[in-house]
């Protein structure tokens, strides 16, 4: 062990006693990053990291301490993006300490961070973009026209040089980028170094703008008197050029009403370019290469704008045989399994019963069964004249209406009382009447009744529960009646 200490391959046990502030100073001096990145990181460390961890010993920091620190930032109202940046910096510092054997293991493991809300891209319509361009001076019109049709970042627009424009092939090459620290000789990422096509009218406007410029000159520079030709500053350009144009720009909507243009930043020109291309059917893969996105997930933010977005889903809904409707229909009122499923059926029974009482012409006996009564006096029509049969059919219809009204009012529309249900009717009563007692949502056929519907748990589909006994079923029941009561010679007239 002493040999390893001498060789420097093992740190002493007191290495972790140094404070976080001391280790941060060593880590910051050795860090390599872009100047604008260093400025943002320095602000985050100053505001969120050092005030909490500055006096801690490196070996004393645990994973739970880090999680508690994140919770404290959330309770203070710090934004999710700021918390994520501060945590990434703390994780980098602790990982460097782990690599340098200052601590045994990094405490930044499996830490829960607040979710960052992903905002949809903000883009302008064609009329809005045109109104913005009309409010700009001539040099900035060309710059914004180039931004809307190429999707370049503002730094790439401000860092464009004349010799990067290929007028013969109508192309421009993205290489240099304008930053607050100066012109950077390489773009944001490897995919950001790209070739971008130029539409003919954009190339014409660009050629007129670059005609008096030198080959190595910047395409867009300041135009203020006494300060012309200088490198553009992002903050000054927004304050002096972009926001005044946004304030003065107006457009007309489809109703002819004049509205102000949305207050979107200059980066929205990039979103607008992607949105227009996707709406015109350009694939997301081509849009990714045009914009120079490193990850395809970044380009997928525009997927909802594709002309065939959700085409398969919408086609499936259109192929439905009977689509749902918002209008209430009494004959197809939804039935729920349980206590409330009889309400719609009873209302239907009342409506049809009143029509039968007033019009007649259908089997009152079959409707009486549908209304909740299975008449035992099936021999009423035996030897009777036709006027007497019609009178008794109407009487049975009135009886069905009265029974449905009684169930609806007394039992709250929760279905028939238990004494009326076919499951409760004794076999003696079935033999006496000759026919089973049935409700509209029940069937005498036991094999059919055992088949439960998965959606409602009912014996049969809804259409079967609503239909009245057919003429064939009435004749079948009449035949059964004649078998049970041989002396019965009457019958239900055909067609009833």
Question: What are the SSEs and their pairings?
Answer:
Elements: H1 2-7, H2 20-29, H3 35-53, H4 63-75, H5 80-99, H6 126-134, H7 138-150, H8 154-158, E1 165-166, E2 171-174, E3 177-179, E4 182-184, E5 194-197, H9 200-210, H10 234-248, E6 250-252, E7 258-260, H11 268-279, H12 284-291, H13 296-299, H14 311-318, H15 342-359, H16 364-371, H17 386-410, H18 427-433, H19 446-450, H20 462-466, H21 471-484
Antiparallel strand pairs: 1-2, 2-5, 3-4, 6-7
Helix pairs in contact: 3-5, 7-9, 7-11, 15-16, 15-17, 16-17
Per CATH, the architecture of the largest domain is: Orthogonal Bundle
Question: Helicity level, as a percent range?
Answer: 40-55%
Biggest sheet details: 3 strands, antiparallel
Taking Cα atoms only, what radius of gyration do you get, to the nearest Å?
41 Å
CATH superfamily of the largest domain: Intergrase catalytic core
Give the low-pLDDT segments: 330-341, 359-381, 413-426, 435-467, 488-496
CATH class label of the largest domain: Mainly Alpha
Strand content: under 5%
> What's the number of domains?
3
